[in-house]
Amino acid sequence: MQPQVLTMNSPDTAKAAPGFATRYKRFSQSPVFFPLIGLVLVCIAMALTTEHFFDPDNLVNIARQVSVNAIIAVGMTCAILSGGIDLSVGAVMALAGTLMAGLMVGGMPPEAAIAIGLGVGLLFGVANGFFVAYAGMPPIIVTLATMGIARGIALIYTGGYPIDGLPDWFAFFGSGRVLGLQAPVLIMLLVFVAAYVLLDHTPVGRYIYAIGGNEEATRLSGVRVPRYKLLVYGLSGLTASIAGLVLTSRLMSGQPNAGVSFELDAIAAVVMGGTAISGGRGSIVGTLIGAVMLGVLNNGLNMMGVSPYVQNIIKGVIILLAIYISRERTKRR
Amino acid sequence: MNQSHNQTDSQTILTLEHISKSFPGVKALQDIHLSVNRGEVHALLGENGAGKSTLMKILCGIHQPDAGRIVFDGVERQFERYNDAIAAGIGIIFQEFSLIPDLNAVENIFLGRERTNRVGLLGKAEMRHRAAMIFDRLGIDIDLTVPVRHLSVAEQQFVEIAKALSLNAKVLVLDEPTATLTPSEAEHLFSIMRELKAHDVAMIFISHHMEEIFAVCDRITVLRDGQYVGTTEVATTDVDALVEMMVGRRLEQSFPPKPARNRDARKVLEVRALQRYKHDPVNRFDLHEGEILGFAGLVGSGRTELARAVIGADPAHRKEVWLNGVPVKLNNAGDALAQGIGLLPESRKTEGLILDFSIRDNISINNLGKYQRVGPLIDQGLEGRTTVDVMRQVGVKAPGPGTRVGTLSGGNQQKVVIARWLNHHCKILIFDEPTRGIDVGAKAEIYNLMRRLTAQGYAIIMISSELPEIVGMCDRVAVFKQGAIVTVLEDDAIESNEVMRHATAGSHHEFA
């Protein structure tokens, strides 16, 4: 949100074409500046240490691997921008995915099964939103509770076993291609474009930033804060279930244990993308960069043969670093 | 009159010399002197915004001075942090207490420096004993075992004082300690202060009540608009002389002329009954088109609370509000906005503005529908142009509509909040302390703006703790005391002493 503030609307400065120095200064103040530098550094590091990093096949692979986490991170971005958080996303994703799989295998028309899966995800999000916005409960507790509930329902529904035997064409969402583009990547891009328009070009987006920036001031200015908070969590539930659709399709199986700790990856993507964990500041483009950075890191560390245990440590350190940089920037303003 | 700050004899415990401090856009303090003797009660006097609190925050290390020095107990000191000042022997009792509500008095007093016994566990008996000794010395009898939230406000204040003394405070700052006390509690506080005096503890006493100053203080230092006016002995001065020092030439502060009052103006807002909680007083008032209605009263007399309850920002037990002759339900600020009522909150930084947002985003936040051209999309070009217009209308001085609001001066920030409501064509505005913490020039601009608005038919409720502002600006004044509107003054009756008399009648503030 900040970059437009600086560039588009001040009629005095918009007339003359800005010189390189001005352009650079504006860019360096944009919230995606540091995430972008981080991504470039990570890519360089991977290119230097692994042989096939820049192979087209590998890049396509990264994009596909990133898509599920990135889609979840879109909803998480909204939640965090509004000053909240949603820990239930991984479990809601699993529930939506197993539900779709189960209903389809049980003979329901696939369109209806998908719609019900997405609907249940949305419903869980709305429930989160209700408890946060209207009951005034802390988001971290509410979503921790619904995380357990959603996971529990998924396990009961499946009896704890994966649901296989999905119709062949269902593989489209996870492995299909449209105009040469991987379907999951296309779905991810569509979700991001929708979120970008919502956050940067509609009143709802402005409210989400405002609530995270100063909820009391937003409320006293007459904005009906609770309904927008409800919407934010609803969106988060919806994006989690879209991720569930993609993952179930890619695995061709409804896995009740899918998505454990996905909430952490989503939060990591948001924070590494430069969004303030306290809300009010950040961008959806940053989240995309953060998610890709995380994907590149996973991919590179795997190719290098780094043990998954060590990978956890490296990712943890990088997240700490990202938060530290974003805090330092805030202090200097 | 003001040689005392040059004294450096052993009698002097604390000297502040040539202290200056600026905040973005405001010169808060300029060349201030303050010197306090051992065992002295020194009053710091000045109107709201004169710089008393800022000076005290510099003394205790919360702010750093831009210039000047602090000499404490014969040594020049620079307190980097609050804790440095506390450790050096300066105790501060703020208006908002720093006690932990769920801990008892003893636990609060020893918080962060708990005593341990031989086995390394908490030495509860020893701490209890030491605390009891301090309270004994002060002649205070309170329950040391219950959480402090069960104590009265006065008792909590005594715990704060005891805490400061347990840290061997040599200078104690009391920031409006009597504001929330009953008459007998205030008397008790004064007797404790006299006791401390006998033990050679110096005190800096901030109060707006002259009687209290004459009752307990030795000397008085007066500040005005962040400038040092002078220091004088209580024995050689009187109320009139002090008021003169406090107010100075500023009595003629440029309030715009009041237009002749239109007695037939229609009622735009009728609050027929408003009761916040079950046993609270029921208040009624009307607001007429084109007038400024003042809400006057002491801090804590319920003015802000009533205003917030009217617009539904806070809940009310019973509420009957009529707008333009029609009953309305105002359950939240959104409802109020829909009915054309806007609030300029008391604290612009925490309740008024989104500091990270630009001027444009702050102004248009509650009226984005106005800029939607294609579906739900905001036409940001149109939004920017409108913002420039509104900024010009209220006189916001800033590089452009994209400037971040957090970087503006207090006066300009306040104008941004006002602009938000004008952009929405609200016709009833509630201004809560509209000029708090902003400089004299910006104040005059806001006064003029308010008059321009009423001339256009806006109706304004102004809550203010500054008497000159109430007297200079209001067409009618509702005076609050302990949550109730005790009277509504009109025309010639709007006069400082009259307002003060009603605001304090029957309370301990009226000794004199």
How would you characterize the largest beta sheet of chain A?
2 strands, antiparallel
Architecture (CATH level 2) name of chain A? Orthogonal Bundle
- CATH topology (fold) name of chain A: ABC transporter involved in vitamin B12 uptake, BtuC
> CATH first level of the largest domain in chain B: which class?
Alpha Beta
The proportion of residues forming helix of chain B, as a percent range, comes to: 25-40%
Structural class of chain B: alpha/beta
Residue-averaged pLDDT of chain A: 89
Largest sheet, spatial ordering of strands of chain B:
6-7-8-3-9-10
Give the percentage of residues in beta strands of chain A.
under 5%
Question: What would you report as the Rg of chain A, rounded to the nearest angstrom?
Answer: 20 Å
SSE sequence of chain A, one letter per element: HHHHHHHHHEEHHHHHHH
Q: Tell me what the CATH architecture of the largest domain in chain B is.
A: 3-Layer(aba) Sandwich
**Oligomer state of the chains in this structure:** heterodimer
Describe the structure.
The complex is a heterodimer of chains A (333) and B (512). Chain A is globular and about 60 Å long. Chain A has helices spanning 2-7, 11-14, 20-29, 33-49, 56-81, 89-105, 110-134, 139-158, 172-175, 183-201, 203-213, 215-220, 225-251, 262-272, 284-303, 308-332, and strands at residues 177-178, 181-182. Chain A starts with a helix and ends with a helix. In chain A, strand 1 and strand 2 form a beta hairpin. Chain A has 333 residues and is an all-alpha fold. Helices cover 74% and strands 1% of the residues of chain A. In chain A, helix 5 (56-81) packs across helix 15 (284-303). In chain A, strands 1-2 form a two-stranded antiparallel ribbon. Chain A has one domain (67-326): ABC transporter involved in vitamin B12 uptake, BtuC, CATH 1.10.3470. Chain B is an alpha/beta fold and 512 residues long. Chain B has four domains: 1-89 and 171-181 and 202-245, Rossmann fold; 92-169, no CATH class; 265-340 and 427-512, P-loop containing nucleotide triphosphate hydrolases (Rossmann fold), CATH 3.40.50.300; 347-424, no CATH class. Chain B is 33% helix and 24% strand. Chain B has 17 helices and 20 strands. In chain B, the strands form four sheets. A six-stranded mixed sheet of chain B has the order 6-7-8-3-9-10, with helices on both faces. In chain B, a hairpin with a 2-residue loop joins strand 14 and strand 15. Chain B is globular, with a radius of gyration of 25 Å. The two termini of chain B are 26 Å apart. Mean pLDDT of chain B is 86; it is low at 1-8 and 507-512. At the A-B interface, helix 1, helix 2, helix 11 and helix 12 of A face helix 10, helix 11, helix 12 and helix 13 of B.
